[in-house]
Amino acid sequence: MKFRCADAIIKILEKENIKYVFGHPGEHVLPLLDAIRKSKIKHVLFRHEQGAIHAADGYARANRKFAVCLSTGGPGALNFVMGVATAYKDSVPLLILTGDIPTNDVGKNVFQEVDICGILKPITLESFDPLTPEDLILSLKKSLKMLKYGPTGPIHINLHKDILEERVSSSLVDKKVKIKIREDKSRLSDAIDILKSAKRLLILAGGGVLWAGASKILKKIVKTKKIPLVTTYPARGVINEYEEFCLGMIGLRGTKAANFAGKTCDVLLALGAKLTERTLEGIGNPEIIQVNLDKRFLKGDVNLQMDVKEFLEIIEKIDISVDGKWLKKLKNLKKEHMEIIKNSKISKTQQIIKKILEFDEKAIIVNDAGSHTTWVTLCKKVVKPRSLIFSGSFGPMGYGLPAAIGVKFAKPNENVIVIVGDGGFQMTLQELATIKQYNLPILICVLNNQSLNIIRQWQEMMYNASYSVELKNPDFVKLAKSYGIKAMKVKNLKEINKILRKALEFNSPFLIEIRVPKENIPLPKTIKEKFSIGWE
Fold this sequence. Notes:
Blueprint: E1 2-4, H1 5-15, E2 20-23, H2 30-37, E3 42-45, H3 49-63, E4 67-71, H4 75-78, H5 81-89, E5 94-100, H6 116-120, E6 126-128, H7 133-149, E7 154-160, H8 161-165, E8 167-169, H9 170-174, H10 188-197, E9 201-205, H11 207-211, H12 215-225, E10 229-231, E11 246-249, H13 256-264, E12 267-271, H14 277-280, E13 287-291, E14 302-304, H15 308-315, H16 324-343, H17 348-359, E15 364-367, H18 371-379, E16 388-389, H19 400-410, E17 416-421, H20 422-425, H21 432-437, E18 442-448, H22 453-463, H23 476-482, E19 486-490, H24 496-506, E20 510-515, H25 525-533
Parallel strand pairs: 2-3, 2-4, 4-5, 5-7, 6-7, 9-10, 9-12, 10-11, 12-13, 13-14, 15-16, 15-17, 17-18, 18-20, 19-20
Antiparallel strand pairs: 1-8
Helix pairs in contact: 1-2, 1-7, 3-5, 3-19, 13-16, 17-18, 17-24
Enzyme class: transferase
Cofactor: thiamine diphosphate
GO molecular function: acetolactate synthase activity; flavin adenine dinucleotide binding; magnesium ion binding; thiamine pyrophosphate binding
């Protein structure tokens, strides 16, 4: 028995329990769309390919499982680039399918021909360009294995239109494919010895802990062995940030307690973290044990290329003790930090964001890029894994709205709130049509200060003047209503809770526009120092 290649792809994805393909149709992928139409998988139609891939990204982060996105060739595939880079920088597992011209036209400079594999190769774990039906099916099977068991990140497969129409045998569709996951545990005994002898051990949890499904065992180890924990941005919520041993985020935007712990620990156990320059801002000179399945990120003194959960299952059985005086100091610093936040004078923008965040602490917050990002980072206590969604390593404006769509498809029974500035909102606002079409009850909070506020702040600090940052915005409430979405303006701080309650009870898409002043965000000490000597 033989299948059309397009049908074979969908049969394989159905076996992987894929429910959605996020995308935009086009000529080169018509056979695949026809196959989706006849399957249990649902194609979610976006107004722009960038929106589709950001939605797939949000779905994957919220669901802890790879997501699938689809575009046509040429312009459609190129519209994916922003989202591919975002997923690559944040190690988000995506299966990216792009259409392409027939194989006999390759290299002839025909209409819409572009070397999409050459473009995507630097920002994917793999970019496949199969030129036969057999190679296509094997590339897909290999990709699925990598997405489930290998280091996380985007994988791309290029789909030539003629190959999609060709036939493949059912035996190939059912064929088992093995891949070798590279690991290096050669220094495991060294790591255990260092952990046993440490006096001031600090655990740093990165996003890899979430992807490994290791939150539960990590929490158990932290509580039973009384080891302080700090996180990177993607790992926030891996343990409830109100828990006594969780000190919060470390690094450039880190808490006082987290950064003090990072500066004074004698051993740092980095789990599923990349140790970027922003994280290293909060770290002194400890001996670093780093555990990561992705070899690209290993830079510790003792490196283990292995699964984080497997490592924790080993660590759970060994004796570890932490200096009591140091631990007491960290707990006091955490209390001081919370008191400072509670009692400090806060700006209007900060007040508004605090009210949004405190209104429903269990809601999933999707954060766009802008000045509001800083306020959310500083004000939000994250109480559960994957409940604060943001691109911490790439930070594209316009990510929030489409990512929230993906989050809502992944978590239909949870409240989803996207916080976005007027600048970022207008980069992907066409996806309001997608939200309305699928009647997704997402609460959209647009903070409107009529400017690109962070850029304004930097310009004024560096050049004593701002330029080309003022925004002449439309009426966002009327705009939302033109899409058929309920919308309201918040006129003063007193009415915000009433409007939030109304929006969440409405059980349909709802947009709130909030006018905020052009207020400076607090800058970390290291950034202030750069400004004082000129930007380098």
